[in-house]
Amino acid sequence: MPRGVFKTKPTGRPLIDIDWKIFEELCHIQCTQSEIASFLKIHHETLIRRVEDNYKEPFASVYKKYSEGGKSSLRRNQFRMSETNSAMAIWLGKQWLGQKDHEEKTASPIQESIDMKNAFYASQYEMQKLKKELDDLKSKTNPELQRSNSQIQSMDRSSQLR
């Protein structure tokens, strides 16, 4: 061996082989960073560093890229389930179509009391209006009725005289 060149032993732990296909599948099913690290039996910081070394991108962008496929797969399964599961169809309608349950409005006892009083006063007001209209009609028709009654009576008298 030439002088000054030493053959040294590697230092530190040996690199653990990571099956990147498994990593991608774990991202696909929306596993968290710590769950992926635990599954691969490595520290989460090691996972971040190794992902950046392998993909030449930050962990967040790699995770986002591979997790998007999982979201579409989940969405596809939900739509499939909604064909036979009404609860799933309702949930999807609420989430994506803005649908919501109809809420029955129940009034409080105080509000019911106020509503009843208002209805009572409104009916009293209507009754007063009707009485006034009736009185107006009576006052207008009274002279007319008296004339027609007197005409009828005079006709009756004239027919009796014959």
How would you sum up this structure, described in words?
The protein has 162 residues and is mainly α. It has 2 domains: 78 residues, no CATH class; 48 residues. 73% of the residues lie in helices and 0% in strands. The chain is built from 6 helices and no strands. α1 crosses α4 and α4 packs across α5. The longest helix is centred in the C-terminal third of the chain and has 53 residues. It is rod-shaped and about 155 Å long. 5% of the residues are buried.
Q: How many beta strands in the DSSP annotation?
A: 0
End-to-end CA span = 165 Å
Question: Percent of residues in helical segments?
Answer: over 70%
Low-confidence spans: none
Count of spatially separate domains:
2
Beta content:
under 5%
Q: From the helix content, strand content and strand pairing, which structural class follows?
A: mainly alpha
Sheet bearing the most strands, described? Answer: none
Number of helices, counting only DSSP H or I runs of 4 residues or more: 6
SSE pattern? HHHHHH
